[in-house]
Amino acid sequence: MILITGASGNVGREVVKQALAVGLKIRATFQSPHIAARAPSGLEGVIMDYAQPETIRPALHGVEKIFLVGPPVRDLPAMEANLIKEVCGAGRKHIVKLSALGGRASMFPSGHRDSEDNIEASGLPYTFLRPNGFMQNLVNYNAGTIRSQKAFYGCQGNGEVSVVDIRDIAAVAVIVLAATGHEGKSYTLTGPEALSNAQIAEKISRVAGLKISYVDLPPTELKKAILSTGVPEWSADALLDLQRLYREGKASLVTNDVERLIGRKPITFDQFAHDYAFAFQEAKAAS
Ligand SMILES: NC(=O)c1ccc[n+]([C@@H]2O[C@H](COP(=O)([O-])OP(=O)(O)OC[C@H]3O[C@@H](n4cnc5c(N)ncnc54)[C@H](OP(=O)(O)O)[C@@H]3O)[C@@H](O)[C@H]2O)c1
What we know:
Elements: E1 2-4, H1 10-21, E2 26-30, H2 33-36, E3 44-47, H3 53-60, E4 65-68, H4 76-88, E5 94-98, H5 107-122, E6 126-131, H6 137-149, E7 151-154, H7 166-178, E8 185-189, H8 197-208, E9 213-216, H9 219-227, H10 233-247, H11 257-262, H12 269-275, H13 277-280, H14 282-286
Parallel strand pairs: 1-2, 1-4, 2-3, 4-5, 5-6, 6-8, 7-9
Helix pairs in contact: 1-7, 3-4, 4-5, 8-12, 9-10
Bound molecules: NADP nicotinamide-adenine-dinucleotide phosphate.
């Protein structure tokens, strides 16, 4: 039995889908019964909250491997530490942690590094998956203004990022969860090329059928805009700090870990844009 946490999230949902497709026996965790009720058939759904250890214990029963996904918030290390503590008391289980590229160089990945340190210190078998920025962020966070203003905003200048498709991250996760031989390893997951936001805008323009622009803002202006959407101050600062990392070209490396693990080339941004074109095309998205 494999436990997949964060099963309602962007990555967790895709891992569940691909794990079921290859016939893995999975239990998936949800925070809300309402969302759990909409889970795909073929899995065992449980309600779990990292902040409530009594909900973690039953989720671990009979589990050999855990895909650990925490939300991108300041408390991520503390939340994941609660799960790690419960795992330590429940026998030897292998944790496959969804981490992030960047190490100590930026706020979001640094929280993940704290959690990695906790897992290493626990003595449990582990594998760390460290993806770069997701291609799907363009759909989840930028498609609204792409459709309404034909533009998306940031402060990463001309910095190039080797963005990766969530479908490839999930494919790697399923391989690591299904097989042995990945204990003690860390994989850096990137797409096949590093792209600037101007290049991304061109590629989206092609599938949207109209000119989409990337607008680079001063960091203070971007922060104001992010805060105005209700995002907490720490998260706004972490997002800006990530943009700084990107601007400095520190997220542009391209690795071959995805190809080595899944045996095919990673999905290109052109392929991603083609597959998600509906999200960038106003008329079709509204219908
Ligand atoms: N976006 C990127 O470009 C990027 C790049 C590298 C790494 N990452 C990392 O990847 C991870 C996953 O990203 P994502 O986009 O899949 O995140 P997401 O969509 O926000 O998913 C987070 C999941 O955690 C669950 N969760 C939140 N609070 C919880 C709690 N207290 N107890 C139990 N479950 C809880 C959420 O459940 P609900 O749906 O009920 O809230 C959701 O299923 C994050 O840690 C992020 O830092 C992201």
